[in-house]
Amino acid sequence: MRDAPYQRPAVLDAILADAAHAGFSMSCEDRTGSLLATLAASKPDGRFVELGTGVGAGAAWLASGMTAGACLVTVEADADVQAIARRHLGSDPRIEFVHADADAWLTQERGLFDFAYVDCRPGKYLRLPDLLALLKPGALYVVDDMLPQDTWPEDHQPRVDGFLERLPDVPNWRATPMIWASGLVVAARI
Ligand SMILES: C[S@@+](CC[C@H](N)C(=O)[O-])C[C@H]1O[C@@H](n2cnc3c(N)ncnc32)[C@H](O)[C@@H]1O
């Protein structure tokens, strides 16, 4: 058995090539992307949110699993980085790109979501209750990079450790930590 994805979004290699050119090394890895696409397919016509667009690799994977009636709001603080994602995915009418700090975005009423892929500090290490308040019962929540990454600042490990330690005590959700790919947590809102 190999755990390489069976399918990859057609646009992914072009996104990753631009990411390499721009020196952006924080895109999700293929195994994580494949899981995102599979989970996305389990939410037909769902409302998705991604915090931390990066250059759009995760969004490409999510979009590849989403049905035609689904929609994705993806939030990124760095306009230059998000511009790469917009260039490659901007023609997909299901995707709304938001240039904002996710912390500020979380302060505004956004309706409810069926799926959250949280890839920056707000909604994960900060303001987790506010993010969870945006999830419908049964909604899925995914984070990656729980295992040490080359891109981490020196002070990051305690942040991750604290998040993982708090997981069992978070009310109304069911989480599974996974030592797989970059280290994931997949959780369901109850
Ligand atoms: C790990 S990368 C995202 C990768 C992307 N989700 C993927 O799967 O390919 C994290 C991104 O979050 C962005 N970011 C960091 N802090 C943020 C914040 N407070 N609000 C919005 N975006 C933020 C960074 O600029 C970076 O592009």
Mean pLDDT score: 97
Q: Count the helices. How many?
A: 7
The computed structural class is alpha/beta
The CATH topology label is: Rossmann fold
According to CATH, what is the class? Alpha Beta
Q: Which H/E pattern describes the elements?
A: HHEHEHEHEHEHEE
The CATH H-level superfamily is Vaccinia Virus protein VP39
CATH architecture descriptor: 3-Layer(aba) Sandwich
How far do the termini sit from each other?
A: 33 Å
Which geometry do the CA atoms define?
Answer: globular
Helix content: 25-40%
* Multimerization state: single chain
Q: State the domain count.
A: 1
Determine Rg (CA atoms, Å).
15 Å
Order of strands across the widest beta sheet? Answer: 3-2-1-4-5-7-6
- The portion of residues forming beta strands comes to 15-25%
Number of strands: 7
Bound molecules: S-adenosylmethionine
Please give the largest β-sheet.
7 strands, mixed
| Low-pLDDT windows of residues | none
Description of the molecule:
Helix 1 (12-22) packs antiparallel against helix 4 (79-89) and helix 2 packs parallel to helix 3. Helices cover 34% and strands 23% of the residues. A 7-stranded mixed β-sheet has the order 3-2-1-4-5-7-6, covered by helices on one side. It has 190 residues and is α/β, with parallel strands linked by helices. It has helices at residues 12-22, 30-41, 57-65, 79-89, 102-106, 128-132, 156-166, and strands at 47-51, 71-76, 95-99, 113-118, 135-143, 173-178, 184-189. The longest helix has 12 residues, at 30-41. The mean pLDDT is 97. It is built from 7 helices and 7 strands; from the N terminus they run ααβαβαβαβαβαββ. Strand 1 (47-51), helix 3 (57-65) and strand 2 form a beta-alpha-beta unit. It is globular. It has a single domain (12-18, 27-189), classed as Vaccinia Virus protein VP39 (Rossmann fold, 3-Layer(aba) Sandwich). The structure holds S-adenosylmethionine. S-adenosylmethionine binds at residues 26-28, 50, 52, 54, 57-58, 75-78, 81, 101-103, 119-122.
